[in-house]
Each structure stands twice: as structure tokens, then as C-alpha cells.
């Protein structure tokens, strides 16, 4: 029977503490007959001498090395009854014993029984004995008890979670928004269930499948679904569990993992966050890591070494495929790389339908509308969105989730918690003009994203927000779209300049200016959208092992650098001037919108465009939100 740590500490600590105090001699008892010989009263030494002279003292018992006496006296003051009285004797009274003998008083001296030496000896023995016993118990525990394999011997054993019949509670029907990846793995499941369908035509089962994609897109969820569908043994482990402080432990765990997998083939081995162990060898500041590199070498050998692993499929997930070792990515180890990207509109709708199964959503809420309003959301973001809406519904004591809770949850996920509304003051009016400036410029530009809503309710660090609905595919953006985005971002600053003057311009546009500068620089140095020509002067690729920005070096001359700065200034200056012109031409409608925004604090996109359309035609855009 093994003793748990809690039980060991519960029993050993009090014993060790008690034995320590015994060792110090604090608990050594002092037994004396003085404690059993109880006196009825006390008397001073002078009064005792008077009783002695009057012949009232009949007996004297001396204790505590003649420092204390218990006398038996009889006298009129004592009611002519024998009483025991305690007397504290002085340190030096040599004549007292002589005087007692002359008076023929019955005298008895009781020496003190000193047992402290015995207890000191026991204390000195007990503490080392308990210490040795505790060490013996720990040593026995480290060896796993009598005859059992110990933890020291199992230090290099794999920590993989093993399930003979993986009941993860997740199947392919529970995974939505990544149909292409599901098709790949449905084929892997068929390999495991009916291998003869493929071996009949000479096909071999893939040895490894690597899931690559941003965080929250469903890579781990997909692996759980594979385990739930295949009904084969499933080994699940994280890449960080291989690597230890001691060199060679990770490699030993890899060997042990694949040994168990061979004994249970066909099976699936899932390694989550494989970048923790599969990083490129010999890289990084100060060189590589011996333990990680040995672990990776062993993993490479097990996946495609001298001995084949028939029936073992390794599935790994990572969002840092750029740092993985090239030997790990080659066919024969990871034959397939499956990209799990952020879902499109149909994918988001399917994900929302999955997560809405166990939630009470009002019949007026359309999941189609939510999917259109959440471009760029991953599966984890959408799950969190509905969960936040459900929490907000319970907080407001409603019976079902309405569109108001959905709107508030989207705002919270994107921008942060809702702050305290601003008071009606000059600051509130200035922020209103700033946000209306963004919205008006973005609305009146043909290639800008449509306005979803404008609000003065603070969220996160922002005092006010203008929400735009981005396009479905942000990977392909034209030059005119980038210029419109720059003008829209400068709309707030332009409104401050036109309405309040240059002297009253605030720092509220600092984040806007950072975005503007970044977009203009990318146009010049990466996209070839300037007078310098179609040149890519700066690369997005950098060495991930040198840290962000440390490996960015200029591949152009100082003359080109001056031209880059001039082109960036020219683009920003031109866009700023156009934004100022739009603000000046629409000052009347801007003032009306500001008054309405201060009154309502939030204006949705439909109402906003309707008001502007009364003064100037709004360009016909493909609005994703009604």
C-alpha cells in the first residue's frame, strides 16, 4: 500500500515537531513530591520563626533543595487544629536546621528527583530516529513500494493519455466550418476502419497529418472528433510533456509512446502544440537545446526510421508551422498538411448552429445575421460570443437571448468591456465629431467598408467607436480600397481640425495615425503601389528565433529610403486633404448627426445612411448588414 504525500505529511509533521521539542528538553517533566503535598495556606519566614519560638511547629518537610518547606503547626490562631502551611525559605539560613534540632522538631528533607537527563537522552534519540524513518519512507515511496517499479524508474515513461475506445463526446457532426479538413480526416478514419479498400489498389496509409492554422480554429476539436469516429486506441499528449530539464528524458518518452502505440496498432497518436518539441535544430540565440533536439531526433526516427510503424497515424497540431524543422515536414513523416483557417460566412453559420443547440435563442434572432456581422471570427470566438450573450441574458434576467445581447457580446469580444457613459460636456461633443467624421468619410467613399454603427459608449481604452463591416475576403485588397481606408481613418482628425481648429486638435487620433502610417508604408515597400515602382523592398518574413524586429534589415540604399519616406508623406497628405474636403462639404449633416449621437449615444448603420442620403447621395455599396 502506497502512502500519499498528504497522509505522510499529516502524520509525520506533528511527530517531528513533538520530537524536536523533546530533543530541546522543553517537555521534560519535573516530578516532585512537593506537588502532591498540598498546603492549606502560606506563611512568611519571619512568622514561621515566631511559631517556632512559641512551640507551635510540630513537623517540617523540606523540598526543592531546602528552598521550600511544608510545616505542620497547631495553635490558638489555627483553631487548635493541625494545619499544613507552605513557607518559602531564604537561600542562606544555616542556623534554621540547628534551631529545629534543638527544639526536637520532626524534620524530613526530600531531595528532588531529576529525570531531565533521561528525557534529554530520549529526545536526542527520537528526533534522529523519526528523521531516518521519514527518509526511509520517502525512499520506499520513490521506489514504488515493495517490489514495484518506482517513479525514478518511470521518469522517462510517456505521459500520454491513453484511451482504448476514445469516448471524447465529439464526432464529425460537432465540427463545423472546416469542411475541407473534415474531408481529409474522414478519409483517414476510413483508412483505419477499412484499410483493404486502399491496399487493394496499392495505397498506403499516411503516417502523419499536420494541422496548421491560427488559434481557435478547431484543430484540437477535430482531433477529438477523429478519435470519436475511428473507435481505435487514441493517444493524446502535448508537445511540452516530452521536454524535461534532464537530457535524454524526452527521447525516452518518445520511445515509450511509440512502443505502446505499436502494441495497440492500428491507433492514433495526437500531439498537440508540436512546435514545443519540433522546432528547427541548431537555431536561436546561443544555439540549440540539447534535450529538445534529442527528443526531435527520436521523434523523426520513430516516424520514419529503419522500422516502419504500420497502423500508427500521427496527428499533430500547431499554429507556428514556420518554426518547425524541415525534416519533420517532409513526406514520409507528415505526408499531409491540412490548413485549418478562419471560417467564411457559411462556416460561421454552421459553427453558430452547432453552438446554439443548447442555448435558448429568441425566434427573432437570425443566426444568418450574426454570421454576416462577424467576419474574421474563429470557431472559438463564435463559441465565446454565444456564451457571453447567454451570461448577459441571465444577468438581465431574461428567458432567451435577444439581438440586444448578441450586439453587446460582439462589442465586448471585439473592443472590451463597456465603460461608464460620458457626461454631456465639451469632451463628449469633441468625441462625437471625431467618430462622426470617421463614419461620414467612410460612408461617402465608394470603396470603403459600410458603417455598422457609431457609438459614444466607451469600450476598453476607446472613448467612442465607429464600427465598419469588413469585406468577406480581406486577403485581396485593391489600391483604391487601401486609400479609402486611410481616408476613413483620417476622418476623425479631419473633423477635429475643421470644427474646432488646429489649436484644439487632441491626441484621440494617435491610434488612427499609427494605422495610417502602417498602411501607407506597406503600399510603398511591399505592394508596389507608389511612384517608386513595383518593388518589394521589405519582406514580411523574419527569423522567428531572433525576436520580433531584430532580424529586419534594410535591403535598399539610403536614396531609396528617402524616396520611401517621401512617398509615404505624399500618400498620407493627399488622403488627409480629401478627408478634410469631405468634412467641409458635409458640415450641415455632420452637425445634425452629432446632435443625434449625443442624444441617443448610438446610431446604427441603416439610420446613419438614411440621414446622410437626405443631404447627399450615398454610393451604392454591397452592404453585408441591413
SSE-based structural type:
alpha/beta
The helix fraction, in percent, is 40-55%
Question: Briefly, what CATH class of the largest domain?
Answer: Mainly Alpha
Number of domains: 5
Largest β sheet strand count, sense and barrel closure: 6 strands, mixed
pLDDT averaged residue by residue: 78
Shape category: elongated
The N- and C-terminal alpha carbons lie at a distance of: 69 Å
Number of helices: 21
Reported by name, the CATH topology of the largest domain is Methane Monooxygenase Hydroxylase, Chain G, domain 1
Please indicate the percent range of residues in DSSP E strands (runs of 2 or more): 5-15%
CATH architectural arrangement of the largest domain: Up-down Bundle
Number of strands: 14
**How are the strands ordered across the major sheet?**
6-8-9-10-7-11
The parts where pLDDT drops under 50 for at least 5 residues are 25-32, 144-153
CATH superfamily of the largest domain: Peptidase M41
Indicate the radius of gyration in whole angstroms.
43 Å
Subcellular location: Cell membrane; Membrane
GO biological process, one term: proteolysis
Cofactor: Zn(2+)
Active site: 435
Amino acid at each position: 500500500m502506497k502512502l500519499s504525500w498528504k497522509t505522510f505529511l499529516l502524520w509525520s509533521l506533528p511527530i517531528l515537531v513533538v520530537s524536536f521539542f523533546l530533543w530541546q528538553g522543553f517537555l521534560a517533566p519535573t516530578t516532585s513530591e512537593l506537588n502532591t503535598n498540598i498546603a492549606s495556606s502560606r506563611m512568611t519566614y519571619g512568622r514561621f520563626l515566631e511559631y517556632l519560638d512559641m512551640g507551635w511547629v510540630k513537623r517540617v518537610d523540606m523540598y526543592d533543595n531546602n528552598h521550600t518547606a511544608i510545616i505542620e503547626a497547631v495553635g490558638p490562631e489555627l483553631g487548635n487544629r493541625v494545619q499544613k502551611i507552605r513557607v518559602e525559605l531564604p537561600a542562606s539560613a544555616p542556623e534554621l536546621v540547628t534551631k529545629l534540632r534543638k527544639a526536637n522538631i520532626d524534620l524530613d528533607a526530600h531531595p528532588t528527583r531529576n529525570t531531565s537527563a533521561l528525557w534529554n537522552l530520549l529526545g536526542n534519540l527520537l528526533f534522529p530516529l523519526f528523521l531516518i524513518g521519514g527518509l526511509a519512507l520517502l525512499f520506499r515511496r520513490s521506489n514504488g513500494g515493495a517490489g514495484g517499479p518506482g517513479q525514478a524508474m518511470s521518469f522517462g515513461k510517456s505521459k500520454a493519455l491513453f484511451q482504448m475506445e476514445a469516448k471524447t463526446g465529439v464526432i464529425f457532426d460537432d465540427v463545423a466550418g472546416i469542411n475541407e479538413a473534415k474531408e481529409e480526416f474522414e478519409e483517414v478514419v476510413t483508412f483505419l476502419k477499412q484499410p483493404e479498400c486502399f491496399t487493394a489498389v496499392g495505397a498506403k496509409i499516411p503516417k502523419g497529418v499536420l494541422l496548421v492554422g491560427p488559434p481557435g480554429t478547431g484543430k484540437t476539436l477535430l482531433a477529438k472528433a477523429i478519435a470519436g469516429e475511428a473507435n481505435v486506441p487514441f493517444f493524446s499528449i502535448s508537445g511540452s510533456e516530452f521536454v524535461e530539464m534532464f537530457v535524454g528524458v524526452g527521447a525516452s518518452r518518445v520511445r515509450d509512446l511509440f512502443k505502446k502505440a505499436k502494441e495497440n496498432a492500428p491507433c492514433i497518436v495526437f500531439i498537440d502544440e508540436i512546435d514545443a518539441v519540433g522546432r528547427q535544430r541548431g537555431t536561436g540565440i546561443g544555439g540549440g537545446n540539447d534535450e529538445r533536439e534529442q527528443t526531435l531526433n527520436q521523434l523523426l526516427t520513430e516516424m520514419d526510421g529503419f522500422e516502419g510503424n504500420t497502423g500508427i497515424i500521427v496527428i499533430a497540431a500547431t499554429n507556428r508551422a514556420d518554426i518547425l524543422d524541415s525534416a519533420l515536414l517532409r513526406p514520409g513523416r507528415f505526408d499531409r498538411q491540412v490548413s485549418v483557417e478562419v471560417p467564411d460566412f457559411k462556416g460561421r453559420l454552421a459553427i453558430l448552429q452547432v453552438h446554439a443547440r443548447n442555448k435558448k435563442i429568441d425566434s427573432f434572432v437570425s443566426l444568418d445575421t450574426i454570421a454576416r456581422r462577424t467576419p474574421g471570427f474563429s470557431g472559438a470566438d463564435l463559441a465565446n460570443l454565444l456564451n457571453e450573450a447567454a451570461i448577459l441574458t441571465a444577468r438581465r434576467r431574461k428567458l432567451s437571448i435577444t439581438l440586444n445581447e448578441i450586439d453587446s457580446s460582439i462589442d465586448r469580444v471585439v473592443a472590451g468591456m463597456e465603460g461608464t457613459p460620458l457626461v454631456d460636456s465639451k469632451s463628449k461633443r469633441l468625441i462625437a465629431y471625431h467618430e462622426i467624421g470617421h463614419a461620414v468619410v467612410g460612408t461617402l467613399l465608394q470603396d470603403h467598408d459600410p458603417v455598422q454603427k457609431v457609438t459614444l459608449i466607451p469600450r476598453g481604452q476607446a472613448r467612442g467607436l465607429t464600427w465598419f463591416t469588413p469585406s468577406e475576403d480581406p486577403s485581396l485588397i485593391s489600391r483604391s480600397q487601401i486609400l479609402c481606408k486611410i481616408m476613413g481613418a483620417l476622418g476623425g482628425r479631419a473633423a477635429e481640425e475643421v470644427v474646432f481648429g488646429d489649436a484644439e486638435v487632441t491626441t484621440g487620433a494617435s491610434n488612427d495615425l499609427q494605422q495610417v502610417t502602417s498602411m501607407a508604408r506597406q503600399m510603398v515597400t511591399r505592394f508596389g503601389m507608389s511612384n517608386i515602382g513595383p518593388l518589394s523592398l521589405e519582406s514580411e518574413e523574419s527569423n522567428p528565433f531572433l525576436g520580433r524586429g531584430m532580424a529586419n534589415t534594410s535591403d535598399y540604399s539610403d536614396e531609396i529610403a528617402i524616396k520611401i519616406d517621401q512617398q509615404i508623406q505624399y500618400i498620407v497628405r493627399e488622403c488627409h486633404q480629401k478627408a478634410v474636403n469631405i468634412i467641409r462639404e458635409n458640415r450641415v449633416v455632420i452637425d445634425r448627426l452629432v446632435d443625434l449621437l449625443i442624444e441617443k449615444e448610438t446610431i446604427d448603420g441603416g439610420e446613419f445612411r438614411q440621414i446622410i442620403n437626405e443631404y447627399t447621395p450615398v454610393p451604392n455599396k454591397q452592404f453585408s448588414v441591413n
